[in-house]
Specification:
The protein is an alpha/beta fold. It contains 20 helices and 8 strands. The longest helix is centred in the middle third of the chain and has 21 residues.
């Protein structure tokens, strides 16, 4: 029987995050949202991931106000976000009261579908977020499997994980291939195996880094996938997703025809072309993230991590060490128990690899985040970390084995007291909880603007870093 494939367009979140470091302002996007709303996408991913941090840190935007503007513009389309489970959108685990309130406010402000994942595929770290979604009428929890390659990450492993996610209360499952590692036949086998065991809609998310994602999508669709993730072509390919228009054209006239209007898609694509050109001219869109690199299958570096890696090496005047760092990444990953490389584990592994190379000695300098991963503060790694590496990084400390958030006291009340002079709405406390310094800088900037004070006189960082 014919089965129309749904498209989730990720241009406004993952496309721009993967290629241009999440530097599009809401003003860059608003003029085209009405046309995007008319297409008939299954969903549009607009929020979460790195967008929240970027709004505060680089664009001096309130991320919550951005979400409300998206909601006003999309009257016919479901809005989706990416949530890192107990990490929410930050880089550590937060108390359950923060997770619960963040999920509630995200839905209140306009999110319909929360794609929730854990960097280590530790299902315990998704429990609180899923329960919070289930409290809200009409909201959906999509639980995402972080796909990676190792001897541990077998077909049986992923099917078992999909069953766990179903039992947690998932409304749908996503195979999240953040580094373009999912090959076509492997995708067919994986989708088929999950669909045989789990009766839920299945979405496939892949990046073009290794050059195979479009082929992977076709095989995944043939095996029974229901939804695929794409980006409008000017912000697609490279370390982003396959192009929306290309996949729509490829499926046209088949039993999987999306039914989407190709002429309207072209109008939307044309809108984003000048944004892409401006990003190229400014140097923000690097050729390093546009080229296909089959070596991705060795290094397993996702798009967002790759752009961060380039940025880190630039800051250290060590761009010539790029290839050396790429070779170090899989070694660090093996040392740290084969975590999938996705935020925050990708940043942890990537930063440690950069330090190992720049310092000229492995683990001579170890950031707190690496130590916390070894301590079990992010959850259970797929493979136990060897005693040798553990001792090298945390000495004689004993790692924890419980759900990390079980050790975190409620945080919201304390945080609300800390920003009482800046709080204008409940969401401000959540912004501060996730990114304390960036949120404070933004609150000071907001106050300076409100009262007509020169931000320089108010000791506020007035720099804005758009495209």
């Amino acid at each position: 029987m014919a089965k129309a494939i749904k498209i989730c367009d990720c241009t406004l979140r993952d496309g721009q995050q993967s290629l241009i470091a999440t530097r599009m302002r809401i003003e860059d996007m608003l003029p085209i949202l009405d046309k995007m709303d008319k297409i008939g996408f299954g969903a549009v991913e607009v929020w979460g991931g790195a967008t929240f941090d970027s709004c505060l840190r680089f664009l001096k935007e309130d991320p919550w106000e951005r979400l409300r503007k998206f909601r006003s513009a999309f009257s016919n389309t479901k809005l989706q976000m990416l949530l890192r489970g107990q990490n929410i959108l930050g880089y550590r685990h937060y108390a359950d009261d923060v997770v619960d309130t963040f999920v509630r406010k995200s839905i209140e402000n306009g999110i319909d579908i929360l794609r929730i994942f854990d960097a280590l595929n530790d299902a315990r770290n998704l429990e609180t977020a899923v329960k919070a979604v289930k409290k809200e009428d009409g909201a959906q929890a999509q639980l995402a499997i972080s796909y990676t390659l190792s001897d541990v990450h077998t077909l049986e492993y992923y099917v078992k994980l999909a069953k766990q996610y179903r039992d947690l209360g998932a409304d749908s499952i996503c195979i999240k291939d953040m580094a373009g590692l999912l090959l076509p036949q492997a995708a067919y086998d994986l989708v088929k195996a999950i669909k045989e065991e789990v009766d839920l809609p299945l979405e496939v998310h892949s990046h073009y880094t290794s050059g195979v994602a479009a082929m992977t999508y076709i095989k995944a669709i043939e095996a029974g996938a229901d939804i695929i993730d794409t980006d409008m072509s000017p912000l697609s390919m490279g370390t982003a997703q396959p192009a929306t228009e290309v996949m729509v054209a490829a499926l046209k006239g088949t039993e999987y025809d999306t039914g989407l209007d190709e002429n309207l898609l072209k109008e939307i694509s044309d809108y984003f072309k000048p944004i892409r050109e401006k990003a190229i001219e400014s140097g923000l869109l690097s050729t390093k993230v546009l080229s296909v690199d089959i070596a991705t299958l060795i290094y397993q570096v996702p798009g967002g991590m790759l752009s961060n890696l380039v940025s880190q090496l630039k800051s250290a005047n060590a761009e010539d060490k790029y290839d050396e760092v790429l070779k170090e990444i899989p070694k660090v990953r093996a040392d740290l128990g084969y975590p999938p490389l996705v935020t925050p584990s990708s940043q942890i592994v990537g930063t440690q690899a950069v330090l190992n190379v720049i310092m000229g000695e492995r683990y001579k300098m170890v950031p707190k985040e690496t130590k916390d991963l070894v301590r079990g503060m992010y959850g259970k790694t797929p493979v136990p970390i060897s005693e040798e590496i553990r001792k090298k990084i945390i000495g004689d400390e004993e790692p924890i084995t419980c759900r990390p958030a079980d050790n975190i006291e409620p945080e919201l009340e304390k945080m609300e007291a800390e920003i009482k002079d800046y709080k204008e709405k409940e969401e401000d406390v959540l912004s501060y909880a996730l990114f304390p310094q960036q949120a404070l800088d933004f609150f000071k900037f907001r106050q300076a603007q409100k009262f007509g004070i020169d931000p320089k006189l108010a000791d506020v960082d007035n720099k804005v870093y758009p495209i």
